[in-house]
Write a structure and sequence with these properties.
2 domains; binds heme C
């Protein structure tokens, strides 16, 4: 008598167990781990030059680049190329402290690009 009830139940339980074991395996194969580092690199390649400027540079150069605090150069009148700015920011010059220990090379380039905006606006 009991057999008629328990067999379908057992089958259902077995099927559920099978699903629990097999499904995660299938899902696991779908997500390739090789793709993950590429996403992280793309994010690291595009630092926010404006955010970096506001954090590290504004105290001397001001929000428009012409504040001149501590003898800081007026970035609106700067004639330096992007490469020359990268070098000043990386290695420092006179009263300007070097940023190579604080910022990555990509961050230095991003903030240098941002300073080009001040002189372009003239
Ligand atoms: C401690 C104050 C100070 C801070 C902070 C500072 N600077 Fe300067 N910066 C200066 C001074 C002073 C000079 C002029 C250096 C000289 O007389 O040779 C200068 C010069 C420069 C120049 C060269 C401009 C030219 O035409 O010669 C650039 C570009 C520059 N700074 C960008 C930055 C950026 C970007 C940051 C933030 C990452 C920054 N500075 C942070 C003080 C500062």
């Amino acid at each position: 008598m009991n057999d008629r009830i328990s067999s379908p139940l057992l089958f259902a339980a077995g099927a559920a167990l099978l699903a629990l074991v097999v499904l995660p395996l299938v899902a696991g194969c779908g997500s390739s781990q090789a793709e993950k580092p590429r996403v992280a690199t793309a994010a690291a390649q595009a630092p926010d030059g404006e955010a970096i400027y506001k954090k590290y540079c504004i105290a001397c150069h001001g929000s428009a680049g012409d504040m001149g605090m501590n003898g800081a150069a007026n970035l609106q009148q700067s004639k330096l190329t992007l490469e020359e700015r990268v070098q000043v920011i990386r290695d420092g010059r006179n009263m300007m402290t070097p940023f190579k220990d604080l910022l990555s090379e990509a961050e230095i380039e991003a903030v240098a690009k941002y300073t080009m905006k001040f002189s372009e606006g003239q």
